[in-house]
Amino acid sequence: KISKVVARRVWDSRGNPTVETDVYLENGAMGRAIAPAGASRGTREAVDLRDGGDRLGGMDVQGAVANVNEKLAPAMIGRDVLDQKGIDAQLIEIDGTKLKSAIGGNAMIATSLATLHAAAAYNEKPLWAHVASAYGRKPTMPLPEIQIFGGGAHAGRRVDVQDFMVMVPGAETFDEAMEITSNVYRAAGKIMAKRGHMAGVADEGGWWPVFSSNEEALETLTQAIEDAGEVPGERVIISLDIAASEFGNKDGYKLALEDRAIDTDGMIEILGKWIEKYPIASIEDPLAEDDVAGNQAFTKAFGDKVQIIGDDYLVTNAELVRQAAKDKACNAVLVKVNQAGTVSEAVETFEAANEVGYRSIVSARSGETEDVSITHLSIGLGAGQLKVGSFTRSERMAKWNECIRLQEEKEIGAFVGGEPLKNTWWK
Ligand code: PGA
Ligand code: ZN
């Protein structure tokens, strides 16, 4: 039984305040989790409660922390920690709003995740093993999706596209995927330095994108894959997060770098050309979150060639995943626990994705911390893919390093590698 719940203010990778919750049990066990924070958020995701005003640029979370300590804690004390679903339902009821704006998505997810950690501690299991047994899943080592250049809202909108990433489905092991990614990251850095384009890193640690077009970034990334001794499209593929809601909607898109406004068809045409020309195997949010027709048309045109991930479009919401399947928009879902606001809702989204045949990618946010819960979730659920940001900065590397440690666990199945991806779009 839960005996004590305590929240406090800690700080994230952007130096912004965030919520950490501890859940203590009568037997002395405890669980702890920290809320991450997004910068390019979907309009339908759970919203963080920030204090506003002048203090800390309005970003403080005293209200959210107080909500945990004063409103959530009293309702949780005495409850069975293994009843994650019941506890999450109660948190949702106490909040009572659609987007968790009363208690705050940050307060909710830190508390919900800390409960999951406490349950794992009660069962004397590592989190991944608790998740696998609680949700009846076969744990696997995920395929990492790693950012090489950061753009969009994470890099002062220097380029329109938000993430230029690589995946190494051709690697035999997780370790090998890390090594190849490291080579690509370093090769990309060398190219930037040689061209006098070295300007530090973006929010998630990918190289700051000093490019004069989105396409130049794609060319450079392809070159970096070659310089790393790989044949682009063989073992290593490119993955993009367009995050199109950041620069457009169903009525039109304004690509700063292309210096022209385009409509949905124009966007699809540009992306289609990139897919033709570069070894792109995955695209996230190709069109804006309100552009249902655009997402449908894009999926119709390229759904058999590339993985099409809904992030802002699906906001880790089971209902939206089911609707997208009916609409034939996207073929994969990004699972961000704080978009949902509770662990149970995030897992429900993952289960809905399985039902409709969508792949799932467990994902970090651009604002992260040392919390490695998502590594355990992706492994424990057997989600198959994990997106964390780049290959630098410890809030990112902590997640990859946790995967490396867990490779040694016999009960964790093989590295996903190309397996579930093969025969569809990779090769
Ligand atoms: P965010 O972006 O965490 O800043 O919202 C990440 C993403 O779009 O995948
Ligand atoms: Zn995204």
Automatic annotation (TrEMBL):
EC numbers on record = 4.2.1.11
Q: Which residues form the Enolase C-terminal TIM barrel domain?
A: 138-423
Q: Which UniProt keywords apply?
A: Cytoplasm, Glycolysis, Lyase, Magnesium, Metal-binding, Secreted
Principal location: cytoplasm
Which pathway does it take part in? Answer: Carbohydrate degradation; glycolysis; pyruvate from D-glyceraldehyde 3-phosphate: step 4/5
Q: Which GO terms describe its molecular function?
A: phosphopyruvate hydratase activity
Positions of the catalytic residues: E204, K336
**What is the cofactor note?**
Binds a second Mg(2+) ion via substrate during catalysis.
List positions binding (2R)-2-phosphoglycerate: Q162, K336, R365, S366, K387
Q: Which cofactor does it need?
A: Mg(2+)
Q: Where in the cell is it found?
A: Cytoplasm; Secreted; Cell surface
Segments forming domain Enolase N-terminal: 2-131
Binding residues for Mg(2+): D241, E284, D311
Catalytic activity field? (2R)-2-phosphoglycerate = phosphoenolpyruvate + H2O
Pfam families (UniProt xref): Enolase_C, Enolase_N
Record function comment: Catalyzes the reversible conversion of 2-phosphoglycerate (2-PG) into phosphoenolpyruvate (PEP). It is essential for the degradation of carbohydrates via glycolysis.
Which family, according to UniProt?
Answer: Belongs to the enolase family.
Question: Per its record, how is this protein called by name?
Answer: Enolase
